[in-house]
Amino acid sequence: MNERRIFSHDCVAEGVDWLVRQDPRWQGAVAHAGPLPLRLNPEGFAELQRIIMGQQVSVASADAVQRKLEAAGMDDPDTVLSASDAALRGLGLSRQKVRYVKALAAADIDYAGLRRMPADMVVARLTAVPGIGRWTADIYLMFSLGRADAFAPGDLALQEAARMIFDLPARPDEKALRGMSVDWSPWRSVAARIMWAYYMQEKQREGIR
Predict the structure, then answer these.
(1) Which of 122, 119, 84, 101 is nearest to 45 (CA)?
(2) Which of 27, 56, 101, 155 is most open to solvent, judged by the fewest CB atoms within 10 Å of its CB?
(3) Whole-angstrom Cα distance, residue 9 to residue 6?
(4) CATH dotted code for 9-40+149-206
């Protein structure tokens, strides 16, 4: 596996320079977005569990639940498997997410081995687990494995940012944004960082959803 990884702010800056050279509209987006985060997260079960907690809820809500799980020692697969559904529900998980974290704990994923896999194989391995869809796998690729060319076209914030940055008549759907992102390869993960930062600036300014 020889896919480029992001491991420093210099990597992000290199990606930004490349994108701006390809399309000058990125320059305005970067200026509006402000400093871009490195956003590198840990690898492993607890981090993937945290991403699952973030499905369809706010970041703050997901982080609050994950903190409760960690405080209760529920950030380890064996501990999760031995816990009752009621105990997990008591920590703030829905019935659906109880099923998901139990499935993740039982999946016996070789997290160190994921580092050596091509992106498509990582996605296939992760999405074989109930509760892990493409969005969750893409987020893990980007921010835990640091893959420079990963992207999450199913993310609504990225779709809305694309509409604004590229002055589109409507928000692109997942298929359309995936097609657009081909032009941003091999730095799609940096494009995503720009777009999320841009979206947050616009959301604060205009209250967009």
Answers:
(1) 101
(2) 56
(3) 8
(4) 1.10.1670.40
